[in-house]
# Entry
Amino acid sequence: MRSGTSFFDWTLFKKNVTRFWPIWASYLTIWIFVMPVNFLMMDINNAGGLEIVDIASASWAHLWFSLFYGCFSAMAVLSHLYSPRSANFYGTLPVRREGIFLTQYLAGLSFVVVPNILVAALTLLTFAGTPGALGAVLVWLTVGCGVYFFFYTLAVLCGMLVGHILALPAFYAAVNCLAYIVTALIDAVMNEMYKTYMGPGSLVTGAVEWLTPASKLNRNMYTLRQVGEAGHLYHQVLFNENALILAAYVGAGAVMALAAFLLYRARRTESAGDVVAVRFMRPVFKYGFAVCCGLGLGFMTGIILGEGTLSMNIVVWTALGCFFAQMILDKSFRVFKKWKGALAVTAVMAAVLAVMAFDLTGFDTWIPKLEDVESVKVTGLGTASYMNDSADWQTVTLTDPEHIEKILEIHREGVKGERPGSMRVSLGLVYHTKRGDVSRTVSFSLDPADAGTPGTAAHAFEELYADRELYWRLYNFDGFEAALREEIGAGKPTIYYSNNNGLAEEFGDILDRDVYVDKYLTTIDITSRANMEKLFAAVKEDFFDGNICVRHVELQGDYTKEMSLAFEWESPDNKMTATGPYDDYGVAYFQRMEVGIPSTAVKTLAVLKEILPQELELHGYTTEG
# Structure
């Protein structure tokens, strides 16, 4: 009889399926109860009326099942790699290494894919005759298999890098959240080292989101479309644009599968039992562990020991982390003779921290040139005159060179260091320059007495506050005005007013929440569009006459508000649909704007007295003139 080698071994495949039956059996049992059994009971109890959207909605659960079952399956089918005896045994089989890898890989893949197919078939039987059921089940099946393929393959790749079965889940968990954790640690350290640091930019956060697949995939992958004729409408379930995200991860999974295959071919049998089985990954693990240990534990001990100890703690923990990693790799405590690597990584970390501590790159003192700035997005422009209204922390984008120049003046004073001042201001700045976006934050104290001195931050604030057109945009009155002109979404703009009169005189009543809500937070919905338009016109007139929303650097507190008006409306810019563009099921994001109405707002109070006379009289409001 002629002997030969094979690229797939059916006997080995069946051995995996029977040996590790608890994995696929538990997965199958859970989904049978979640899908067909659950839907059948709903059909019986409700006498029909099953909704196929429930099938597609269940696709979100695939993420968490795949995250855990992918790891369990990889640990099962790769368990022979982590014992010298079993690794040597598999090496004597009349199956090429390529065949062993393919057999084991497909066995682990079948632990979830085959149960998914069975559950899909049973669910189709439960929904027999229901229009659109086939499409909904196919969406559920595709999402389930695609997400599992990615996480399972990621776990297999991690399994190729390690030589101990317990190291696999540790590496797998680390890879899934490493980008987020490292970015968060670097962000925390930079916040401590740089006073103008505002956080990672959109490019970094976008990359981190992609490198944290559990977060990126945590969304539904389907869209609803209503089809049929009047009286016979039903929902058809389709993929939406988020399916492209899944497709990208499936593509990445295919690349990882190829990488795992190449590593398996080159893997040394004697590496069984090592924490890191691949030689080129040992220094990556060692120094990566040292850096993460230095940043994480160094930051924590820096918080405990107090300000000024952060750099020292990071350096010390980096060195210790390097020795800890060497102990894990060597499985021995005798590692101090390998001090050169620890010295090198510690020196590099100390040099980086020195650059940050002494600001050798000029990060904190960087200020763009006026001609390089195309626009600047400013948050917190109202903090130099806190009035407890919507403009205190509102964000506005400035494109006028004169406005940008004032922001640069404020920025210059902010980076000079702390100076005596009675007013604390904080600004978030995002400069849109010709070379890209640059974010900075400035927080410092200023003296209101400098408001009349050109070139000072206080004077720059005062001039910006004097620009009524700018503050009209800052409060976002334009948004509400647009909502009055045209219908936006399903709802109409609504105006509320809350009175705070008499709080100082009867402060004790505030301790009783019910009394506070009933007596002081009275809210009246003005449903008449004519009344809304009349009231808003009066607010606008008072605004440009300088009767309301008048800011000065020396003004702090509650603006002596006798009442506040809150305007709410659906935002056309942030309008999103929960199920896509094909139906009317939408999620509207509301914008809210609140302004204080003092006794000087004569036109606004006159209109309120006209449209709400009883309410104003009840709360003791009067209009002058």
Remarks:
- The two ends are 114 Å apart (CA to CA).
- The longest helix spans residues 97-126.
- Residues 6 and 471 are 76 Å apart (CA to CA).
- The longest strand covers residues 423-433.
